[in-house]
Structures are given as C-alpha cells and as structure tokens.
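Hi V.,

You were right to ask for the full record rather than a summary. Here it is.
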Amino acid sequence: MLASAAPRYFNIAGPCYPDEHYMLPPERRLGPVLELIQQRKYFTLTAGRQTGKTTSLKWLEGYLPTTGLRALWLDVQTAREQPDPATAFALVFDRFERALRSGRDRLRAPEAEQVADWLARPGSAIVNYITHLSAQDSRPFVLLIDEADGLVGQAMVSFLAQLRDGYLARKEIPFPSCIALVGQRTVRDDVLTAEDRRATTWLGTTSPFNITAEATSLSSFTEAEVAELLGQHTTATEQRFEPAAAQQIWELGRGHPWLTNALADQIVRRDVKDWTVPVTVDHVESARETIILERRTHIDSLVAKLREPRVRRIIEPMLTGDRPQGDLLGEDLAYVVGLGLVTLKKGVIEIANPIYREVIPRALTFDTQVTIGEKPDWYVRPDGSLDLPKLMQAFQTFWREDAHVTVEGAAYRESHPHIMLMAFLQRIVNGGGRVEREYGVGRGGLDLLVKWKDQKHVIEVKLRRDERTEAKALAQLTSYLERLGLQEGWLALFDLRKGTPWSKKLFVRDKKRKGRILHVVGL
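Predicted structure:
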C-alpha cells in the first residue's frame, strides 16, 4: 500500500463532492436538462434512487448563476406523505428557509408573520412564497424541487395547481422562468386515487402538470465511464482493476451509479485493503454477493417497493415468463421504469440489471429460505458434486407437504411455485454455489442455471396450462441446453389444476431430445 492513503473514496451515501469522492462530471448527464432550462421550460426529471439526482441538482445550483440565471435547490422530502396542504406547505417553507440560508444567491426569506398569513390560506401559499423570491432580482429564476414526488393527496393537487397558476400568470407576476420537479416518478404518477384524479380534471389532460414540456431522466454510466471512475482510484492509489473486473462491475450494475460505487467500495475498502493487489473478477463476484446478502439501504428500499400492487403487476408476470397485461399497463410500467427496477430494451421489458435480477427473487423468497429445514450438505456427494436428483425429489416432498398450501394467500400468487422452487434451491446452493435466473418474458417460463463448483444444472420452470405445455417446455429446454453446450437438463412442471390427484401430479420421467437427457419433474 502507498504511504499516503487516497483522501477520496467511492461514495454510497448522499450527494457526491469532488474534493471527497471519486465522481464523474455531473454536466455530462445534464445536456437535455440544460437545454430545457435555457428554453425556460417547466419539466420533470426522474430517475431511480441513488442515481445522482441530488448531486446533479446541487451542481446546477452552483453552475447556473455563472450563465446569468438565479438558481435554488429545494429538497421537500420532510413534507412526504402529508396530505393536508397547510401541514405539508409549512414543512416546505421550512425547507425553503434552510435552502435560502445556504443558497448562492442569498435570497431573503419572508417574515414569519407573512408566512403564517399565507399558510392560513394554503390554496395560494405556494404561489405567494415563490412570487416573493422571484421578485427580489430581475434575473431569470430557476427552481429545482427535489423529492417532489413525495407530496401526496390534496397537498400534491394544490401544489401542482399553484405552480400551474403561477406559470400561466408569469407575464404579470414575478415567477420562475423554469421549474423542475425531481423525483423517482413523473408527475402523472403522483395523483393516484380516483378522488384526486377527479380533482384535477380541470387540467384537461391525464397529467396533473400539463404545463410540463417533457419528462427527462438521468442516464446510467456507460462502460467507458465506469472504467474512468475506477481509474480515478487507480490514479490515487495505484491499485489496478483488471480489465475483466472493470467490465464485470459495469455488467452487474449496468452503470447504475450506486451499484457501481457500492461494488467498488466493497472491494477496495473492505475486501482488498492491500492496494498493491489488483482487483479481479473473483473480487467483484464476492462483492456482489456481500451487497445482496447484507441488504444495504439501497437494496432494502428496492425490496420494499416489491410489495406495492403497481410493482407486483409488472414484476410477477416476468417471474413466470409471461407478459404484463391489463388496462393499467402503461401507467404501471412507467412507474416501475421510473423506479429503476425495469427497463425497456428494443421494446422488451427487462429487469434493469443482473444484480436486481438476483435481488428480486431472493427478496421475495427470503422468509421461506430461512424457514426451510433442509441443509446443503444433505445434497452433496462424497466427491463434492451436487446431487440434483436427490434435491429435486426433496423439493417434491416439500411442495406437497408444505409449500403448495400457501399459494392462495401469497402476494405473488401466479409466480408462487417459481418463487418456492427458487427459495428451496437458494437455501441449498448458498453452501457452495449460486442460482442464476433468466426471465423468459413472453415464453411462459423461467430458466434457472444452478452453478455448483464446476457443475452447471439447467432447470426450466413451467405451469401446466394444458396438455401442450410439456412438449413446448421440452423444446425450450432443449434449445437452452444447446445454447449452453450441456447434455442434461431439468423441467419442473407445476400442475395447479384443481381436482388433479397428487398421484398424477408427482412423477419423475426422462425424455430424450437431440441426444440430450431431459428430466421432467411433476409437481
């Protein structure tokens, strides 16, 4: 290790600062935002948690005055989940005062008596406060409102209505030239109840913020930018990331800022403290497992979202290999994309990155995993290999005796069989391997790849819909085996049809396709 440690580090909590953290220039990701500001547009800026929103806003607050504009960054998260306008706006005004004390332009807050008078009439309080600030200088005023999607109910309805009123009257009254509403969700996702939607029909559009020019988002880091970020650590410490390791960090997080920093931080601060040791792919894989198992704050917040009905309606079909459907697909999908959980790639819905692909099923199966009494060493042969036939037979017993009865009460009912099998496998292979999942959206199935030491076991998971299900599944399994160059695979075929006796549901039979052995396990 070098004599003097690097003063900067990979940040995994809060906004980034150039003198403290390894970071990329925020302005790289803000080209569309700067254009909207210069055009004096009102817009929304969305991105998932810990993707650099606050860092970007604080940079904008400092940069915009150099271009002849005034700017104020306002974080309204303390007003989160407060539906009463007077209560919510009192909290917003408190945040305004804090922002004004630290803001570059040193705008003056209104007197306390004036604020109290405005709060007595909350329907105009926001317009009055912002007008007071706008009138203090002739330069165009840019207001950056962070965590805006935390406002709810009538507080959100009134807040949006007042911004609209100020926008429409800004030729007659002092009002910002540009307002950005920043959060995980676009404004159209903020008014959700039928009552709130009726209250905003006067806006004449499905979006409650119809003056929004357009919604924009923060892009993830490119593979080259991930390498650049890691290279800052190398420059400071001489600890090298092997090219394959840097590529793996990008691949696992797909450029998500927090995941990228979390992987790098775990490696250089905890796993490989000797900076003369280069970082390898094995170090990256170990860091990935640690981040998932420790359920860091970012991961925990993602897990909490899985319980929301809107999220479930998108995620559950993906677990079973089906396509999300329904009248609310557009709104639900926009919401889940905004959260950063999924992405659209060439028109196909995908889990956003490989780490989330693992986190989602592991989170949904965690309670089951910890209650399964099976021990990994029961299924390890004397030579150290995994006895998958014995494991699948044990799962048949587990499914019949315990797991199948929980289907009716499961939150993810349609994917419950898939989740139970993944929980069982995860519980076992945690002792020396891992389960990789490939969501076959549109194929009606889930592909699992169990890696155990130098073994690879393919398992196709299907729900029996009719008599054609098995034949179709065997064809898909054969194709999967051909792609991986394997000669043997498994089909877990769940039969949830009522009235079918266990004597017909439970079986194991072997099929041969194109020289490959396919084990069909009835459940």
